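Re: folding output
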Amino acid sequence: MPQKEIMEAKEVAEYLHLHPFTVHKFAREGKLPCFKIGNDWRFRRSAVEEWVKLQEEINHKNRSKSSSPKK
């Protein structure tokens, strides 16, 4: 079965291993790329995957900074 390009919040929650409340919160706060159809949030799988990559890069940079020797 092909993966859906447009996902509902509960599908994104399962994909990211987050609680659906967290996905809705991130959507409302503009932290997760999404759009609304009526009252329902929708997410492009490709945009969510890009967001995950960006989060990985940010976390990697933050770890690198925190592990650098202090003067």
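--- second protein (sequence, then structure) ---
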Amino acid sequence: TWGGAAGGMAAAAADSFRPLSADDEEQLPIELESLCMACFRRGATRLLVTRIPFFREVIVGSFTCGSCGWSNAEIQSAGRIQARGVRYALAVRSRQDLNRTVVKTDCATAGVPELHFEVPAFSQKGVLTTLEGILDRAIAGLEQDQPDRRKVDTEVAGKIDEFISKLKGLKEVEPAFTFILDDPSGNSFVENPRAPQKDDALGVTHYRRTAQQAALLGLEEEEEEDPAVSAEDLRNEVLQFSTNCPECNAPASTNMKLIPHFKEVIIMATTCEACGHRTNEVKSGGGIEPLGTKM
């Protein structure tokens, strides 16, 4: 696999990121020899470090094994997990919208609400493609096991065939539909062909991750300070600590509280449940004042 190689290259290749362009003849992939995870022989990994316009740096990688023919492709963000998640909502109205560049990380979900269709997070590797490529990938995934399904359960296979037909219909944009891409890591992207101008068909929302989303990303949720517990609240709270009864030496509890709206004066009261002995005491919590007080 190429994940380790890609991660180690990110810092070293910081100055090598060039805008993604088919016309850039100098933008050549880096080729590395790596292990095939299917046959455990040597294969070739090609890595391309690039910058997507109006987005950020990414590393595109593909692996091909000359021995067994196994291959795969993947995309990784060259940056860190963003401070907030991101949700793209694209109103697809023409076939031109299907040509928009899409970066979908492995932790992102993609879907079409009109068909109640969703590609769950972590079900696919990250990919740099187009919206049409997202649909083609979903169709190919559903068609892959259809021959076996037809042998086992023709009814289920028939329903999946109907759904595949609906997905293929989306490629004709009849009718128009909505494409949703939701990524809690904030590293997915849907192209705005009018950038830097606003695209009325594309809505972008940045949101705060939930505790569950942070856990899926391997992040520790920052614990928020309880606003109810403040220094003033502690001053008004009755504190309790363990002590021994001065009469019978049995375990007892002493309650302690500061006198509100006054100087540092502490009231202490001890009650022994064993013998019933009680004590009350007032202690100064500060230094001696320079002047006395007569009332």
